[in-house]
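Aim 2, interim progress. The first record below pairs a target sequence with its structure tokens.
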Amino acid sequence: MNATSTRAEIEQKKQKETAKTWVRQVDEKGRAYGTGRRKCSVAHIWIRPGDGKFVVNEKQYDAYFPILDDRAKLLRPFTATKTLGLWDVNCAMEGGGVSGQVGAIRVGISRALQSWEPGLQSYLKSAGYLTRDPRVVERKKPGKAKARKSFQWVYLLLILEPVADAYDDASPYISATKEVR
């Protein structure tokens, strides 16, 4: 055997050992915890086995998120792992708008499911639910109206006006600039 295959075998052994070290992380109340972030929103998620109750800031999630697409995005980690309706979810939200909060809750639920059952990580990771969306609002730059938007362009137009002049040999027109809006 050459050195590269030996190194590959060593890497495989390390991966198997780290896969064995994933252990369920549950608190004394029998809940798993996950934190999710998106834009300016932060979601603190606690899940435990139950009958499918979903509470966000002490309100039912359908009252907190009235738009159906937002509710569907919240439940996607459960549908990816085929555990819809088997968990009670309690969520504490901070900051941001609706879309940022939905994204933060989705990441938090995924991380909480992973900490409860490490075997679900492959399903969640392949669906992309464990990855935080790094996009944030771009800052405003000096000399710009917004981050990239420029102010309205105002240009000077060269207008020729006839001018009575004492010199006959000179051109009857003299240039003058006027601002045009």
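The second target in this work package is listed in the same format:
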Amino acid sequence: MEAERDPIEEIHQAIVQFTRSTRTQSNDMYQGLSFVAFGVLSYVDSAASPHAKDLADVYGLDKSTVSRQLAELEAQGLLLRVPAAHLPRAQLLKLTPKGRRRLAVTRARQQEGLRRLFGEWAEEDVAVFGRLLARFVSESGRSSGLPELPPASSRPPHTRRKG
């Protein structure tokens, strides 16, 4: 009989394996977007009145890095910076229709991949895993000192999964 492994060791090994796997598949997972670009578009889509400073705070990046990423997304026609009426020097970030479509297609493809992966799991197992993973991510984010991202359920209805 095989000795039981330490659960923390198993979790650590699974995280390392998952990270390695997602890095090798990232171009497919993000439809040609970088991981950072996908994160920026997702944040802009889910946050109320997002600003560049919000992105820097949430992702722990310096303003120049955020500015370069925003400029790239603007050049690709995925994002706009628009004047904020209540703050004269501030700019709100908005997805363009092209950016919204690109994000929706990317999310749909990712979710379809997850449906395939969990296809043979019992519904209850998927639900439990989802709750535990969300808890793990939330608690690990709090320990990092970074603010939490808006939950997917706060996204406008057009970006939430239907049915």
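The domain at 22-159 is CATH 1.10.10.10 (Arc Repressor Mutant, subunit A). This observation will shape the mutagenesis plan for the next reporting period.
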